[in-house]
Amino acid sequence: MNTQQYEEPVANEKVLALPKIQPKAQVVNDGSNYENKYDDNVAPAPITRIARRKPVIRVKVANKLAYKYEGLGFDIWKKNGRRAIYTMTELYCYKTVSSDEAGKLKLKRFLIKNGFKSNVIEKVSVIKEKESGFVYGLIQVRDSQDNIQNVMDKMNNGKDEDVIEINHKRQYSSRREQNRKLFVKNFDIVNKKDHKRMTEMFLRFGDLDCDIFMNRDRNGNPYCFVTFRDIQDAIACEKNQNRNRDPLRDPLWFNGRELSIQYIDDSKKGNNGKKKNGKSGKKYYNSRR
Questions:
Q1: Model pLDDT for residues 57-112, shown as the tens digit of each residue
Q2: What is the pTM of this model?
Q3: Residue 35, Cβ neighbours under 10 Å: how many?
Q4: Contact 260, 224 (CB under 8 A)
Q5: Cα(95)–Cα(110) distance, rounded to whole angstroms?
Q6: What are the E-state strand segments in 186-282?
Q7: Is the dihedral of CA 129, 155, 255, 83 positive or negative?
Q8: What is the C-alpha to C-alpha distance for residues 253 and 243, in angstroms, rounded to an integer?
């Protein structure tokens, strides 16, 4: 009987050793079930359901991005040395004085004695009406509304009739052509936060096209330009301020003053700020007072 003989491996021959870690069974999806490619005895892995992606909602976006406050247009605050800028306030004073220069000096001393500082009184006039002969004082002061009101309350305290009162000028609806730009005046600038505060106030009516531009006119009174992105928002803002007979009217106030809001008439101006006929338009100044 022939026996099979085995030859022992030679010492210098390389022997291929099996890897210590066996490859893991790979699970593939052939469209129906998962199939184990290495061992049929291993249970197939459970089928994993892939979650469906939610449909993409496409939103139409406007050409311009939403307005973002950048703090531009407030150089007047630095040019004025970061000091408050007040609008001139006109007062009526009914103290009996003469209409000559002596009467003006007497009236000014009376105002200073009752609390007004001499440096806030810009002008004192004495008016005498021709028909009735009634004499009253017309005073121009430049101070905060709180300070003015406190002095007036002191002067009118205990009196049967007011000795002094503010000349509230009536606001009229603008007759200029409706547009997106508004001219705003009759307000005070008291600190560096006022520019942003006013911006937030006008944003109640709609998105702005740019930052509000603030400046002061040749008389030293602050003013600003407000440009809305939508003309309908500008119209709503102007109407809200000037509908005097509307019981639901909610006018805008800023630092104790009711704002005066009108449309800007720039239809006859070119890009260089001049009118088409070559004449200059209205100028505004930055002079410190």
A1: 444 444 567 899 999 999 999 999 999 999 999 999 998 888 888 989 999 999 99
A2: 0.68
A3: 14
A4: no
A5: 9
A6: 213-216, 222-227, 253-254, 257-258, 260-263
A7: positive
A8: 15
